[in-house]
Specification:
86 residues; alpha+beta; four-stranded mixed sheet; 1 helix; 20% helix; 30% strand
Length: 86
């Protein structure tokens, strides 16, 4: 589970360096849907939702602080943990 989460976070942070879009939110409670190439300024991950034990892609949410200390929430897709059973 941790390996999958770190892989997803790695992809998100890698796209940060290559992208030019910046997410904008009307309020700190707004959840932004991630799209490929979106610029993310992730200085610190505050929290993330649990990944369910299913064998298909599921939406998860992450709350993070940017380099200015502002919190943002983003929704993105990950593969569920249900495919890992031996």
């Amino acid at each position: 589970m941790k390996a999958i989460l770190f892989s997803v976070l790695g992809v998100l942070m890698t796209t940060q360096a290559m992208a030019t879009d910046q997410p904008t939110a009307q309020s700190s409670d707004a959840v932004i849907d991630y799209h490929y190439g979106m610029h993310l300024d992730i200085a610190r991950v505050v929290s993330h939702s649990e990944i369910p034990n299913v064998c298909h892609a599921v939406p998860v949410e992450m709350t993070y602080e940017d380099s200015n200390g502002q919190q943002h929430r983003i929704r993105y897709q990950v593969m569920g943990n249900g495919c890992l059973g031996g």
